[in-house]
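Before a colleague's protein record goes any further, I have to sign it off. Alongside the sequence sits a line of tokens, each denoting a local backbone shape. I want your independent view on whether this chain really folds as the tokens say. Where you disagree with what is written, explain briefly why. This is what I was given:
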Amino acid sequence: MLAYTIRRLLQSLIVMLVVALVAFSLFRFVGDPISSMVGQETTLAEREAMRDALGLNQPFPVQFFSYMGRVLQGDFGISYRLQQPVMELILSRLPATLELALISGFFAFVIGVSFGVYTALNRRGWLANAIMTTSLIGVSLPTFLIGVLLIWVFAVEFQVLPSFGRGDTVDIGWWRTGLLTPSGRVSLILPAITLGLYQLTLIMRLVRAEMLEVLRTDYIKFARARGLSNRAVHFGHALKNTLVPVITITGLQFGSIIAFSIITETVFQWPGVGALFINSVRFVDVPVMAAYLMLIALVFVVINLIVDLLYYAVDPRLRVESGGAKH
């Protein structure tokens, strides 16, 4: 177990280095940050002086290794646009993104599992067929279009939900939350549905497929032969085994929710990390863009590492294969 953990940690570090290198290399070609920081009246000499001050005239390897040295110390640099430490900017907006992601993930998991179980147990019913047909909307329509449609229906036509913003927030230490205010909770509804609809559809279809597969296995037939009730068979045996791969996929999808929140935050003007990234791209704010991509990569790496370690701890076949490889 220790050797496996060390190997996975080394692989995760390599992934993070590659992501940092790709991000830092890519952003050299998205534009000139100096042009977005100065006016047209700025002279060429002043532009060159600013390049020297920011280290943009140094060779790329020098810039990259200097940047990674600061990152290892927790310093992601200063935002070119806002002239504030990048870490402070991200931490100030991270609570909004995490709250939106957590609510969206909870909504997608609860409704997706419920609908998946229902459509599996009543697969010939008209309501189950209607749910499966409607679920195609969550797969087919792009996120921004779903958000615009929800705004049009609930904010413009019925005027029952706000169309943008986070509502009122309160501070709990360094964490700024909107979950403790009525307007904050109401403002979460439309963005959470928009962001979680695709994940809901994915979880529902996965649960349905896994549930139908489990119901055809021999141990379910033996459970019925023992005289167990349908409730005990469906929820005590079938659902328990169905949720093992579902929880794994849900954990991995949580990283996708955070990464894909960019579109939702843009549509609803949600003050999260995704909106900060979009503005940074517009102004070629390289330190913020690189820090955001490294944050997303870190989320995926940590989730994958946890899932792999749980698989290794739970699945004895991996331990047997590891031992056989040594011999």
User: Anything to note?
Assistant: The first helix runs from residue 2 to 26. Residues 1-81+284-327 form one domain. The chain has two domains: 1-81+284-327, 93-282. The mean pLDDT is 82.
